[in-house]
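user: can you give me the structure for this one chain? tokens are fine.
assistant: on it. calling the predictor now.
[tool input]
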Amino acid sequence: MENKNDTFLPKVYGLNEVKEELRLIRGWYKDPNTMGKRKSMLPKGLLFYGRPGSGKTMLMREFSRRFDCPVYEIEGNSKSVENELLEVYEKASKEAMAIVVIDEMDKLVRKDDKLSRILQAQLDGFREKPCVLTLATANERRDIPEALLREGRFDRQFRIALNGPKETEEAVRGFLLAAGLSIKEEDIPELIDEFDGETPIHIASSINGAALRKGDECGIDDIIDSSYFLHRGIMPKREDLEVERRTAVHEAGHAAYLHFFARRITYGRIYFVGEGGGFTSVRQKEKVPSVESINERIQTDLAGLIAEELVFGSHDVGSGSDLDDAHTWAFKLVNMTGINGVDEHCQKPQWCEPSEQLSQVKVHNFETASEKYVLRQYKKAKRRMRKVKEDVIRLSDFLLENKKASKQDIARVLGPVD
């Protein structure tokens, strides 16, 4: 059976549920019967929201091209955005069918109540003659005034993000094809793991960057190296064997802890360039992270500096960011559960960012509790890491020699888990 999404918005990878709904909306606007008998029922505004790089603008552009009608854009760069908005809608209203596009609408209306009210009036004004469909993007839905999101305005809201490994695979295969690259079929699962949770623009940029550097000889390692480059930028090389060895031990510590002790987080690969190194790990998909998975995350964050302590007697390389990450997770856990004697926590459902809706006194209490919690997790992780010190050294030696280690390399060097 043919997948309808194969021929609708073919340049937009994944987002299959979103594309199917957009197909229906386009069909309604193209149907003379709907435009005649049920025109007042048609949606007036569609909002696409999601983090930068998720593909909102491309989706909006590709969708607007499916209507074969004039498209007007509100850029918001003129001295009077209000006049620009009114002029655009005036032009659009004279067409048999028109689309108005507002990119990053949250930036326009977030601090401008007047502009928000004008936009509301324009949306409401097309009830009798619904020939204008407004498409808008936003990074944050919560930055859009609620009045704009109610029925009859932007009441069709689509969160734009790749939904799981299947849609990630579609994006990976699509961008590989577009770049003219041929990757071994057995390497595709590793690329899916690598890019799971990433935005389409990051996947595309990683693949395109690797293709530009390596051409037809481009392989999976080149693509993953390109991904790391985008995340971390150019890292200076330094001929310092002590720094290199510390980095290798540090990253091997993260990998060894996940390999031997974690059950809710899977490990990726290690990359290593001069002074810089990095290790990828993937937390299992949980709607609300569990206490157990957060504990594993904290312990894994600490495992790098613990490995340095066990091998060198002190920690140095990359420890600051790891400690910050561990404390952030602990703070969130206190916020979620009220552990360590903190009996008040964030009023949002179960999970929220640090310090939201918290007084300074509460924040101080939370920070104190989270510091104690991190210390307990540090001691627990260190007891475990002492048992695998030789494994860490063996993996760091492999890393020093090869400068990188894939998931398969890590599993082979560290061996089976008891």
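assistant: here you go. The CA atoms of residues 335 and 345 lie 5 Å apart. The first strand starts at residue 45 and ends at 49.
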